[in-house]
Amino acid sequence: MEIVFKQVNLKRHFNLCYEFRRDSHFCSFGTYEGYEESVIGYQEKIQQRLNNPSWHYLHIWHEQKIIGQLEFKSFSFLENTGYVHLIYVIPEFRGLGVADKAEMLIAEKLKNQGCVQSLLSVSRENERAVRHYRRFD
């Protein structure tokens, strides 16, 4: 399956960013409770960071459809370590290798920015994601 990664077009696709984050929250916690508070200022944060080369906000495209979103940065509290905030794939494209390709892109971009490793957090309640990331232990 061919996929393409493009920088988020905030003016055209903020509603998708919002919905992808919302579904990700539900996948992580099994509830929408707390979601609204977690995205206060979300659009403004993305806007401020879009032109900063340390931050990456990308949509994943398949043909003419946006099927996912990535949010990551080339720094964290550890030296030479990037941080992944979001790897999101819409339900009908999960399990098809999209996340694997996304992770390869993230690794490549972070390596090019001097990172030797990356971190991410995953909720234990998000069993699908936990199984996916355990493959890399």
TrEMBL record:
Annotated keywords: Transferase
Domain of life: Bacteria
Originating species: Leucothrix pacifica
SUPFAM superfamilies: Acyl-CoA N-acyltransferases (Nat)
Gene Ontology MF term list: acyltransferase activity, transferring groups other than amino-acyl groups
Keyword Transferase belongs to the record: yes
Domain (N-acetyltransferase): residue spans on this chain: 18-137
One Pfam family from the record: Acetyltransf_1
Protein's UniProt name: N-acetyltransferase
InterPro entries according to UniProt: Acyl_CoA_acyltransferase, GNAT_dom
CDD domains, alphabetized: NAT_SF
